[in-house]
Specification:
152 residues; alpha+beta; Aminopeptidase; five-stranded mixed sheet; 5 helices; 32% helix; 22% strand; globular
Length: 152
């Protein structure tokens, strides 16, 4: 891991003016721009400054993590956090940025009493599964993801 590189990265709460940078990072990762999707995510998450974070290097947003605290649904206690999405500009991947974002996110949730963090990962996304395993995540309990296709 590049310690001097990581020491230059600032983790801070996400702001609405980070929107364009987040959309661009997402486009680089997935190959298409999804501004409508991110408009629904970034703006509402301003109420969760401790769990919607960006990684900034010399004034440039190079990564982000979004999550929330949500309990009481599906029988889940209110001491549960959800990591809903994480992304790092491909030019900066595999250099510890996602780990730094995740560690800050987890510490922030822990500081407000959250005792468990959940996330969902595509079963075939081996790189992301490996990342979360290295962060200490394990396959969780009795909950499973169910789906029902109702359209084309």
């Amino acid at each position: 891991m590049e310690e001097s590189f990581l020491s230059r990265i600032q983790i801070r709460p996400m702001r609405t003016d980070d929107f364009e940078a987040i959309v661009e990072i997402d486009r680089k990762i997935f190959g298409k721009a999804r501004p409508d999707y991110w408009r629904r995510i970034v703006v509402p998450n301003q109420q969760y400054p401790f769990s919607s974070l960006v990684a900034e290097l010399e004034g440039k947003v190079i990564g982000f993590i979004v999550g929330e605290v949500s309990g009481g649904k599906f029988g889940v206690p209110d001491t549960v956090g959800w990591l809903t999405t994480i992304g790092v500009d491909p030019d900066y991947q595999h250099r510890g940025v996602a780990r730094k974002l995740s560690e800050t996110f987890i510490q922030n949730l822990k500081s407000i009493g959250v005792s468990m963090v959940y996330t969902l990962v595509n079963w075939s996304d081996w790189d992301l599964l490996k990342f979360f395993r290295n962060m200490g995540f394990t396959r969780g309990g009795e909950m499973i993801n169910l789906q029902l296709k109702i359209g084309d």
